[in-house]
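User: Okay, second chain of the day. Same drill as before: sequence in, structure tokens out.
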Amino acid sequence: MSRDRRRAIRSGRWVELLCVGVLRLKGYRILLRDCRTPVGEVDIVARRGHTLAVTEVKARASRAAVADALGSRQRQRITRAAEYLLATLPAAENTDIRFDVMLVVPWRLPIHIMNAWGQ
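Assistant: Same drill. Structure tokens below.
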């Protein structure tokens, strides 16, 4: 694995940890992190009340770049992965499922976009 790839993985873990902290401060209970399934990956699954938030974390160098980082193919892949994952998650029963995005740029708090796209 190249040095740049290792650095990107380390940075991604740090950004996800930052987002987990923000979600906890907002009252969410983190159920799963960095979940890989045969059909895709889900960064964070968090619950607050009767809402289960499947959260994608995106970090880029600028706000413009981070906003453009989530295309329709990636949203479909995340949706399929979430459906696969939630079928086996007991905490998902009797909850409303929502897809959120957390946008992270250097030296700023993450921007939490709730209900970024529908199912």
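The chain has a mean pLDDT of 87.

User: Thanks, on to the next one.
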